[in-house]
Specification:
- The complex is a heterodimer.
- Chain A is an alpha/beta fold.
- Chain A contains six helices and 13 strands.
- Chain A has helices at residues 37-51, 68-78, 94-108, 127-135, 188-194, 235-244, and strands at 2-6, 9-11, 33-35, 57-64, 82-87, 112-116, 139-149, 152-159, 162-169, 172-176, 199-202, 215-221, 230-232.
- By secondary structure, chain B is of the alpha/beta class.
- Chain B is built from eight helices and 16 strands.
- Chain B has helices spanning 17-26, 41-49, 69-79, 92-104, 206-220, 228-232, 263-269, 298-308, and strands at 2-6, 30-37, 53-60, 85-89, 110-113, 115-118, 121-126, 131-137, 142-146, 162-165, 175-182, 195-199, 223-226, 253-257, 274-279, 292-295.
- The longest helix of chain B is centred in the last third of the chain and has 15 residues, at 206-220.
- Classes of the chains: A alpha/beta, B alpha/beta.
- Strand 13 of chain A pairs parallel with strand 16 (292-295) of chain B.
- Chain A: This is Electron transfer flavoprotein subunit beta.
Chain lengths: 249, 309
């Protein structure tokens, strides 16, 4: 079984986003960019399935600028086998990404597509579900456990009330939540080896997909800021405040 | 404009999240509620009572019992020929269903809206709430998820909507529900609680977390939450997590105990009305957003506080 893992290059998890003064977006100039953390978990899960013998080949895909090659090389260094970059400098919304991935899925015919549940830049949480819809495949979103069982995959999902398990007919689409695994670091020899792995570059036009955005961002602003309040002297002062707030009285 | 709102329920009762979604949809036009489930006459009757709902559509079929998106999406897409917008609460189930519907309608979904600025214009958080984007859709139809804490709950009673059964679409044969491990608790639900007590990594282990946080929560009639660090360390189950990738909460009072205040945690609770922080590190970032801070060792301060309430 082949596994396709889409990955996105985003502002690094540890960098605090700064809204640009002109209100057009978040400043991405000269800041550290990394693989979306949920996508890293998806790459790791694919590698573990391959190590267990449940997968034969892992193809990582990214849609984005030329620099997304670095993100793909990271995935190759972790253990993916080859990479496809659909190169564009334009804004690509989740629906358009899903359409591009659909074309890749049709060409590659993977048994499983593993994606991060959301990217930490636009926080849309859409691409996996949309890809499942467009390909007519079942979806297991927000996975904390993935078990391939013959022609099926059992996915335990993190839901508001706890956990739930669904059984999906393969081929299927799975999106990862935080607790599915802890991604490995790429070793230096593997980073060197990744440089010779195949990385193919395509364009959205190669797949005949129109990526024109449907949403216009009118402005991007800072959220309302909270200001620091007062420090209380002791527990008695806190008891007083809670009573003023009408709780615990 | 007419809006179809997917009602969240457990086949027995309507969930609170539906009420915020009704309010959000009401800002766009006439609201119809879709109750899709298995044996949902009671839920439909409850839905008809919700203030601001003009009509309730009922799709009763075993295939909808577990809210599997593979089965629900064809139903909703069929109904959408009569509607201008589809809206769900931004819960895990809503987020599972809405994009599947959006893609089938060839619509760019607008996730997690905070406000309605115009017929096709909305605000939504990006970068874990560190920025707010105002976006306008150019699609003919809209697909939206609405953040529960951003919209007041519609009144659960006072309405008298007509109830109409709709044709069901059956089982797509792609997926099946195996089971669930849902937390059972006498406490209020995190996303609708008026008071929340949350614990962080400083609580040491599951036993200490329970012994320290639960008595205080009991005294305050509070729901219990946790930081990602506390969940990852196994102190409490995943559904306790408050933050960017966990639950987004906005209670009247949020008490953060031994939580340093990583931006991912703040993203989940900074809209709380009053924030109280107890932490021994006076430089902890949580104090920058707290209305009232107590710099103290939680292992002495929390039992003392619980005793004095």
């Amino acid at each position: 079984m082949k596994i396709v893992v889409p990955v996105k290059r985003v502002l690094d998890y540890n960098v605090k986003p700064r809204v640009k003064a002109d209100g057009t977006g978040v400043d991405l100039a000269n800041v550290k960019m990394s693989m979306n953390p949920f996508d890293e978990i998806a790459v790791e899960e694919a590698i573990r399935l391959k190590e267990k013998g449940a997968a034969s080949e892992i193809v990582v895909v990214s849609v984005g600028p030329q620099k997304a090659q670095e993100t793909l090389r990271t995935a190759l260094a972790m253990g993916a086998d080859r990479a496809i970059l659909v190169q564009t400098d334009d804004v690509v919304e989740p629906l358009a990404v899903a359409k591009l991935l659909k074309a890749i899925v049709e060409a590659e015919t993977p048994g499983l597509v593993l994606l991060g549940k959301q990217a930490i830049d636009d926080d849309s949480n859409q691409t996996g579900q949309m890809l499942a819809a467009l390909t007519g495949r079942p979806q297991g979103t927000f996975a904390s456990k993935v078990e391939v069982d013959g022609d099926f995959v059992n996915v335990t999902r993190e839901v508001d009330g706890g956990l739930e398990t669904v059984r999906l007919a393969l081929p299927a689409i799975v999106t990862t939540d935080l607790r599915l695994n802890e991604p490995r670091y790429a070793s230096l020899p593997n980073i060197m080896k990744a440089k010779s792995k195949k990385l193919e570059t395509k364009s959205p036009a190669d797949y005949g997909v129109d990526i024109t955005p449907r949403l216009t961002v009118l402005k991007v602003t800072e959220p309302a800021q909270r200001s620091a309040g007062v420090k209380l002297a002791d527990v008695d002062a806190l008891v007083g405040k809670l009573k003023e707030l009408g709780v615990g009285a | 404009m007419s809006i179809l709102v997917w009602a969240e329920h457990d086949n027995a009762a309507l969930k609170d999240a539906t009420l915020g979604a009704v309010t959000a949809a009401g800002k766009l036009g006439e609201v119809h509620l879709l109750v899709a489930g298995s044996g949902v006459d009671g839920v439909a009757a409850q839905a008809a009572q919700v203030a601001g709902v003009a009509k309730v559509l009922v799709a009763d079929d075993a295939a909808y019992g577990a809210a599997l998106p593979e089965n629900l999406a064809p139903l909703i897409v069929g109904l959408m020929s009569s509607y201008d917008a589809f809206l769900t609460p931004a819960t895990t189930t809503g987020k599972n269903i809405a994009p599947r519907v959006a893609a089938l309608l060839d619509v760019a979904q607008i996730s997690d809206i905070l406000s309605v600025e115009g017929p096709k214009t909305f605000t939504r958080p990006i970068y874990a709430g560190n920025a707010i984007a105002t976006v306008e859709s150019s699609d003919a139809k809209l697909v939206i998820t609405a953040r529960g804490t951003a919209f007041a709950k519609a009144e659960a009673t006072g309405g008298s909507a007509a109830v109409e059964a709709v044709a069901t679409t059956g089982d797509a044969g792609l997926s099946s529900f195996v089971g669930a491990e849902l937390a059972k608790s006498e406490r209020p639900e995190l996303t609708s609680a008026k008071v929340i007590v949350s614990g962080g990594r400083a609580l040491k282990d599951a036993e200490t977390f329970a012994a320290t946080i639960l008595p205080l929560a009991d005294k305050l009639g509070a729901a219990v939450g946790a930081s990602r660090a506390a969940v990852d360390a196994g102190y409490v189950p995943n559904d306790y997590q408050v933050g960017q990738t966990g639950k987004i909460v906005a209670p009247e009072v949020y008490v953060a105990v031994g939580i340093s205040g990583a931006i991912q945690h703040l993203a989940g609770m900074k809209d709380s009305k009053t924030i109280i922080a107890i932490n021994k590190d006076e430089d902890a970032p949580i104090f920058q957003v707290a209305d009232f801070g107590l710099v103290a060792d939680l292992f002495s301060a929390v039992p003392e506080l619980t005793g004095k309430l």
